[in-house]
Amino acid sequence: MTARRQLIIRSVAIAAAALAAGAPGLALAQAKLKVAAVYTVPFEQQWVGRIHKALKAAEARGEIEYKATENVSNADYERVMREYATGGNQLILGEVFGVEAAARKVAKDFPKVAFLMGSSLKPQAPNFSVFDNYIQEPAYLSGMVAGGMTKTNRIGMVGGFPIPEVNRLMNAFMAGAKETNPKVEFSVSFINSWFDPPKAKEAAFAMIDKGADVMYAERFGVSDAAKEKGKLAIGNVIDTQAQYPDTVVASALWNFEPSADRAIKLVKEGKFTAEDYGVYSTMKHKGSELAPLGTFEKKVPADIVAKVKARQADILAGKFTVKVDDSQPKSTAK
Hints:
Largest sheet: 6 strands, mixed
Structural class: alpha/beta
CATH architecture of the largest domain: 3-Layer(aba) Sandwich
Shape: globular
Strand order of the largest sheet: 7-6-8-9-10-11
Number of domains: 2
Helix content: 40-55%
Order of helices and strands: HHEHEHEHEEHEHEHEHEEHEH
Oligomer: single chain
Distance between the termini: 91 Å
């Protein structure tokens, strides 16, 4: 028997013995990571849709085994989390804004399970990490586009709830619009729902009737109103221009892939700890971007496009910082 063959046989024997003894590194290398997610809204909703998309991509690459439950009520959220935790899932994701206390309690009860949850609060050691949609940079850029496209100098803004995650994007958008058009005024309202397209549509109609010719579509339903009335819309979190080619001018996109991929890698390596993933939603980390102008490439004034490109370059170079303002935005239009 050659020395090389003896070495191969010995290596196989050592690996088999280590696997039998339950060596964690080898065991994880053999099996796909089991990942689960709990969502309070349907997969199609913008925010959750981006998380779901990133995890489905990891599943398609063969990195994880992925299960998810949508439309879970706040009252049922803790139960579903516990079922996934006891079911052998090694990483659990979701948005826990309405069930913070219960979710953090579950994490304490399962210290060996990694949790990465949407939250406005801090991480909780050792295993509860938080993320947020810090996409204020492309929101600012999309506001610059909006300021250059309005002819009435009135922009309508319809949001879900006035919470930090929504407020910071609206405020950034408003600041961007003011940069390219100091005369612009805003009508702001909240529908107090994360998914009620008819209600958002009605709120948008009311603003358009009062002179708004560009709508900030923080919620589904707003772009429908703009389309019906022949007005323009700016998208948020996802790009819906394909569905509204003559309506949606630009969109601030949230890419959850950098956050999801980091968590998956750390869990596989046994290095997952409680941390704030907010920074991985910034443009620098490719966690957000301004969608291509597409059908509006030739319709947005050239000077506005140049200003947006210059401002984007400054953001990526660290020369310009978009302020994070979590306070509730107010209407300025009379």
